[in-house]
Amino acid sequence: MTPDPSQATRPVQTPEQVRAFFDAHRTVRQYVTAPDGAPIPLPEAHLDTILHAAQRAPTDATAQLYSFVRLVDPAVRAQVAALTNNAHVATASEAFVVCADVRRTRRVLEVAGHAPGHWPAIAVHFGIGDAVMAGTNLLTAAEMLGYQGCWIGGVLNGLEGILDLLRLPAGVLPFAALTIGTSAEDAPYRPRVPRPLVIHTDAYTDGTDDDIRAATEHMRPIAARPGKPGDWALLLKMYFGAGGGMEAREPHLVAALKRQGLWAGEGTPAGPSGQ
Ligand SMILES: Cc1cc2nc3c(=O)[nH]c(=O)nc-3n(C[C@H](O)[C@H](O)[C@H](O)COP(=O)(O)O)c2cc1C
């Protein structure tokens, strides 16, 4: 008999079990493949379960402002791997491009005969939020099944090419790719910023310079990956400092927001979002 999902109960785990589960999380970039390097697909029941988990994510205003593009064709995988500079897009068991998507909501309104509003900033805010929540559910479900994965913000390295390749229409904006597979590497446990700098009580509080220095030292191992500088502040400088990678990405993201009808800044055309 098929279980009734409305009656489902959740087995309760102990705090230690929950901590152990999240402590076993690793971003993994090398996956078990076939001898020729081709991806080994997930068993159908596992794929179905991670997609189900993605869609069980909570969502703003009931809308589900996201879409995933599942990458199956090896040629498409190879192109996304090249456009993102992340080779494991080609070798993972599963690879997705996780997108904010306000187009479908607009279509629901139009099909029902209602005029869509104009809310491009809201679209980005809640669209990215919904996309991240669904993607996180998918990755967590995959980890529950024994897989590991990797988010790939590298989509911002080749945004225009990805819009073209995946034929993403107005109202749809890639957030990141997400790969899933069986780990073929011994990935380290990577630290996080000490809790008092991240979890504030009742009001935001800045840490002292010494707190920041201690956090920077604590985070050093995360910058120790081959090709990285071994110093967290230096790594952040490469990404977020003047002349760093994020400044290089910025104009491409702005161009993509404009192209997809999601730009809320100066020069915004009046009209429904996602047009
Ligand atoms: C939004 C997002 C984008 C990321 N982009 C990349 C990426 O493009 N390439 C990559 O190898 N790892 C990427 N990562 C993985 C991070 O480097 C990784 O999560 C971080 O170093 C912490 O390591 P851990 O997940 O093993 O704890 C990304 C993670 C997130 C959440």
TrEMBL record:
Pfam families: Nitroreductase. Residues 41-181 form the Nitroreductase domain. The keyword Nucleus does not apply. Keywords: Flavoprotein, FMN, NADP, Oxidoreductase. Belongs to the flavin oxidoreductase frp family. This is Nitroreductase family protein. It comes from Deinococcus taklimakanensis.
